[in-house]
Write a structure and sequence with these properties.
Strand order of the largest sheet: 1-2-3-6-5-4
Distance between the termini: 51 Å
Radius of gyration: 32 Å
Structural class: alpha+beta
Number of strands: 21
Largest sheet: 6 strands, antiparallel, barrel
């Protein structure tokens, strides 16, 4: 019992009702059915520490147990009449009762015949699967030890080192059946949320849980205006679980959802704490992106990230943010249908402009999945009231999502841009319509020539293997026409794709790579103003322009939790 004197015995009128365990100097956890008869005459003693017998207690929290053997919420928190000089129980991270091999677990209870000093029973968890999403099934390690019987209800279930993983809640009625059930800590916290602060996310090392709950209390005290749903998305990342349909009423609710509903939550809790710290203390001094050499244009990107949400074929996830002085300023993140996407992007871009410096050169960058690179984002209207295409009103470029998030390719692309920063024009490496060059041959040619700009006669959907080959290597600039040569039976030489490359090559002569977004905007305006805009060679021009120095830290926070 040394060091584990927090094991408690629950009594009423001299009769032992069950067990419990100290979780705060004046708080004891036990089962609701142990104290079902009420608080009158309820006392708590600690057999591991003589002299702490018969401390009066009352039921401070009830988990909502309705009285049936299989009813959920069988938890009660007892408040002691005074604090006791004992170190409270410590908790293991959720799921610690599982493992390879399955660890032995102990419960300290007060069965008949041993209701004075108690007995220890040794069990193990049968499975990680919960029964009715409530209980973990336990079975005895041997057939000869102490079974879990009356007097063990409410006992802490611990690892061999004494860290708590749950509480004994149900036991078999038959004397020869050595099977029981426990409430794991994550279920106990469902009925007493304050328990969350006591349960670490990590077995060792610095743990984010205490720090995060302290930050939440500070945020509440300082009256921080926040949007918990956006903080949640910040924490779990773009591909993490969805928030609940009704959202979160408080910051604490968002923290608890991350803690208990997100698999392996330690990193998400750390991101949550870091973001909340930033909101409370203000942003750190911005880190300027490295820009070796002289860049002809200093772009201020507005980033629109679009991807499938995973919630259905028609569902997408859209995140909008702006960059100012090298620092990301999130605007918002939503999940919606593809039909709703364009309207949200219009509003998000309009709001993002409020984050830019007055003299900033905006650059609208759409980060898209590989098979959506041909999305006509440059043709989307500026707003419901302004039909001007975005690509004519502003420089509009696209980037490919997997490449944008690849640290390897970002590093290689950064080195390419160091050479491009001198301002000289980049040669157009043509991928003509009629070429028989396979993708590995194309890759070899572009690598040998250290290509910086590739022009395609056909759009991505027509030659996906060739686009894949170029996207998987550090060629920072790709250009094509969305209405390029369709190929197949409709192909005629010379074709529209080759004519596009001829016109493109002539148009880009002398244009520095950093100036290309503005140059392409001018081409789009020229095509729109043409007497026959549908036939102008640049009408459907698409520019993939990938300078990672403009977008430091793609895994940084993308969402604004501040109202």
């Amino acid at each position: 019992m040394r060091g584990h004197a927090w094991h408690a015995r629950i009594e009423c009128g001299g009769s032992v009702l069950g067990a419990g365990f100290l979780v705060a100097p004046n708080m004891v956890l036990t089962c609701a059915h142990v104290v079902a008869s009420g608080s009158d005459g309820l006392t708590v003693s600690f057999p591991g520490r003589r002299g702490l017998e018969g401390v009066p207690a009352t039921v401070a929290v009830h988990g909502g147990w309705a009285g049936g053997d299989t009813d959920p919420g069988d938890l009660a928190v007892l408040e002691l009449a005074h604090r006791v000089p004992l170190r409270p129980a410590g908790f293991a991270p959720p799921g610690a009762e599982q493992g390879q091999p399955t660890p032995s677990l102990e419960a300290y209870g007060f069965p008949e015949g041993y209701d004075g000093d108690g007995q220890i029973a040794e069990y193990r968890a049968v499975s990680a699967q919960r029964i009715a999403d409530e209980w973990v099934q336990l079975e005895a390690v041997t057939g000869h030890g102490q079974p879990l019987r009356h007097g063990f209800s409410g006992a802490a279930v611990t690892l061999k080192d004494g860290r708590v993983v749950g509480m004994v809640a149900q036991m078999a009625a038959e004397p020869d059946v050595r099977v029981a059930r426990m409430l794991p800590t994550e279920v106990m916290a469902r009925y007493w949320p304050a328990l969350g602060e006591l349960v670490p996310a990590l077995a060792d090392g610095p743990d984010p849980v205490r720090r995060l709950y302290e930050l939440v209390r500070r945020a509440d005290a300082e009256g921080l205006k926040s949007r918990p749903e956006q903080l949640f998305v910040d924490a779990v990342g773009d591909f993490g679980p969805e928030p609940p349909p009704d959202g979160f009423d408080t910051l604490q609710a968002a923290v608890r959802y991350v803690q208990w509903e997100v698999p392996e939550p330690a990193e998400a809790l750390t991101r949550f704490a870091d973001r909340l710290t930033e909101l409370l203390d203000g942003p750190a001094a911005p880190i300027e992106p490295a820009r070796p050499g002289a860049d002809p244009a200093e772009w201020a990107p507005i980033l629109v990230e679009i991807d499938r949400s995973g919630a259905g074929q028609d569902q997408v996830r859209v995140a909008v943010s702006a960059y100012r002085e090298g620092r990301r300023r999130p605007v918002g993140t939503v999940r919606l249908t593809r039909a709703e996407m364009q309207r949200y992007v219009q509003r998000g871009i309009d709001e993002a402009f409020s984050h830019l410096a007055p003299d900033a050169e905006e650059l609208l960058t759409f980060v898209l999945p590989r098979d959506w690179l041909d999305l006509p984002v440059a043709h989307w209207a500026c707003s419901a009231d302004d039909p001007t295409p975005l690509g004519c009103a502003h420089p509009v470029v696209v980037a490919e999502g997997a490449r944008y998030r690849s640290n390897r390719l970002r590093h290689q692309l950064g080195k390419k841009w160091q050479r491009l920063s001198a301002g000289s024009a980049a040669a157009v490496h043509r991928v003509d319509c009629g070429t028989r060059e396979h993708r590995f041959g194309l890759r070899w040619r572009l690598r040998e020539t250290e290509a910086e700009l590739a022009g395609f006669a056909r759009p991505p959907g027509a030659v996906p293997e060739k686009f894949e080959a170029v996207l998987n290597m550090p060629v920072p600039i790709l250009l094509w026409s969305r209405s390029g040569c369709p190929g197949g039976a409709e192909h005629r030489a010379p074709c529209a794709g080759d004519a596009f490359l001829d016109a493109l090559t002539a148009s880009l002569e002398g244009v520095a790579p950093a100036e290309l977004p503005g140059h392409v905007q001018a081409l789009r305006e020229q095509a729109l103003a043409d007497d026959d805009p549908e036939r102008h060679w640049a009408r459907d021009i698409q520019l993939l322009w990938d300078d990672p120095r403009c977008f430091p830290g793609p895994t940084a926070s993308r969402h604004s939790p501040v109202t």
